[in-house]
Amino acid sequence: MCQCDGTLLATGSYDGYARIWTNNGRQASTLGQHKGPIFALKWNKKGNYILSAGVDKTTIIWDASSGHSRQQFAFHTAPALDVDWQTNTSFASCSTDQCIHVCSLGQEKPIKSFKGHSNEVNAIKWDPQGNLLASCSDDMTLKIWSMRQDTCVHDLQAHNKEIYTIKWSPTGPGTNNPNMNLILASASFDSTVRLWDVEKGACIHTLTKHSEPVYSVAFSPDGKFLASGSFDKCVHIWSTQV
């Protein structure tokens, strides 16, 4: 995961260590506090903190300049699978324990917890404004959460196998493409990618050219295209302008 200005790269490994590298390939620092594999690693927008999630059930905020841990959060009861920054100091985490916690640097307890999935939560993503949190799970559902309420805003059910990952489009209010609608993409083991109108809580397109589970999706910076990658060894580029 690259820092916002592209000068540093952070990597997380099954050896339990995260490492920071310069753009000429030199290792700048080693971040060692997890006990076991690291499953997720994210820079904040400011580029001063790195967030990690591990099999040891914890998440850690690291000071990128010193390589030291600022705070370790031990709220999950099973491996933490994904993390995503909401602001430069607050974030959400998800786990095989089916729970989602929203935490903030300096706070000793989660500032919000969401429960509603019936199987492990594979990925979480804040929308571009940090208002809505999307989560996807092995329970085949995609849920949308708001800090304003305890229950999910939308419970989106259309996939018929596990949902591995999700991505918000870089469109709508607060983005560089404010006149385009905000959409959410979900990638599933059912070999499909679905595009969702989150405001309406409806699936607007189902992309069906893959023949194996879809493990990765990414929007172009202008939001007009979506790339999907699958176990079928293919990458497809889709137009979102339909």
TrEMBL record:
CDD domains: WD40. Keywords: Nucleus, Repeat, Ubl conjugation pathway, WD repeat. Signal peptide: none annotated. One of its GO terms (molecular function) is transcription corepressor activity. Its main location: nucleus. Belongs to the WD repeat EBI family. This is Uncharacterized protein. It is found in: Nucleus. WD repeats lie at residues 31-72, 114-155, 156-206, 207-242. It comes from Hyalella azteca (Amphipod). Pfam families: WD40. GO terms for biological process: regulation of transcription by RNA polymerase II. One of its GO terms (cellular component) is histone deacetylase complex. Transmembrane segments: none annotated.
